[in-house]
Design brief:
nine-stranded antiparallel β-sheet, DUF4166, mainly beta, 9 strands, 70% strand, globular
């Protein structure tokens, strides 16, 4: 699945795209970040009280066909919580990416609707 996220900062747009695929053998989502991808992360999914929680696990730096495991001190560990709010017909999302050495790298929250194109 290809994800295209567009963030608006006044007149500027910033993109955060990813390609994800399901690895049935390991029961994880493989998340390739960027175009072309430069970082890969395993994602674990869990459902709690109707909300989806996604947490990042192993991460690797991608240099063409070479994958270099990242020590945890260099990783951005993500926690994402998503839920669907029927009354608003929208999804809510909360994202936090933290590093053990420097703390929060980035975070955002908001709402979105799904559109088929």
């Amino acid at each position: 699945m290809h994800w295209e996220r567009i963030f608006y900062f006044g007149e500027k747009q910033r993109y955060f795209n990813a390609l994800m695929r399901f690895n049935a053998k390991e029961a994880i989502i493989e998340d390739y970040l960027g175009e072309p991808p430069i970082v890969y992360s395993d994602l674990k999914l869990a459902v709690d009280h109707g909300a989806l929680t996604i947490t990042s696990k192993r991460q690797r730096l991608l240099l063409g066909p070479v994958e270099i495991p990242l020590p945890s001190i260099f990783q951005g560990k993500a926690t994402v919580k998503e839920a669907y709010i029927e009354e608003k017909e929208a999804y809510t999302i909360s994202v936090q990416v933290k590093n053990p050495l420097i703390g929060t790298i980035f975070a955002y929250e908001g709402a979105f609707r799904h559109y088929d194109i």
